[in-house]
Amino acid sequence: GDRREDTGDRQEGSDRRDSLFKFHRVGVLSCKNNILFGATLPQLLGILIRNRKYVEWFKYGVRICCLLMFAIFNTILSVLESIRHKFAISQVQLNDEPIFVIGHPRTGTTLVHNVLSSDARFSFATNLQVGFPSTFILMSNFQWLLSFFVDKKRPMDNMELSLDLPGEDEIATTLLSGGCSAYMPLFFMSQYKTYLDLLNLNTTKERLDTWTASFLFFLKKITYWNDRSLAKQSAHRRLIIKSPVHTSRIPTLLRLFPKAKFIFCYRDPYTVVQSAVHMAQSYYWYTYLNEPSDADISDFVLDQMEIIYREYFKHRNLIPKGNLNGVNL
Question: For residues 3 and 36, is the Cβ–Cβ distance under 8 A?
């Protein structure tokens, strides 16, 4: 059905709804590991203003102030970077055979992404690039500063968290689009239903156009920068693209890249749910701008899983024969 009919407002008494999983509040004052640190001031203010009635300004005031201060720095770098590189980026012709690593969160997509990205024949976006999509060219000179805001290990699985490792492009799209992304529940979990249409991009034309423009601009920018040392007559390398939410976007991705290849990662669904709940407890608290109830988080985990798998199995036959492979981890 159409989930957009839900306003996304937390209903009265929602904190008393039965919840399948229990969570405990952590890190309210933490300013680490928040993907909004890469936002420019217009991007961040847009997100805050559009969602102002949901933001818990006092409870998360320290976090918001840190984000605003960093956004000012990002904005200065972004203006300089845009003046120098924006036209050249707009002229980039993308390789039309990218490889999408897809699969529900916690199915091993990061492992597969890391392995494929070690092959020099391919290009990929780093954590620095996805985290600072408007400024990563100049921000590379200030990586020492970022060490204060990024842990060395991922909170949910203790894997290495390096700015040079492959990252998820949807993070960049979230920032470049000013919040037109399926990752918005990471900040406003209590209103997650207002963003469910962005999981499969079965959304309004305005939202779809905004997401598409931001996504393609980011792919062009990393292609431009990562392949800058190649001879001008050389074709750009194929991109390895990984964000779990792409699993439910096959029709849109094929419209943009008809020759794309897909690698679908899967594992035992009960293990996936347990791991997804663990990630919600160990990581999501670093990003919230309002405090959700246990039921909000539980419902999000289960609704996201249902939509991702429903859309994948509904549309996987659209992928041309030979262009889809599976990996059981």
Answer: no
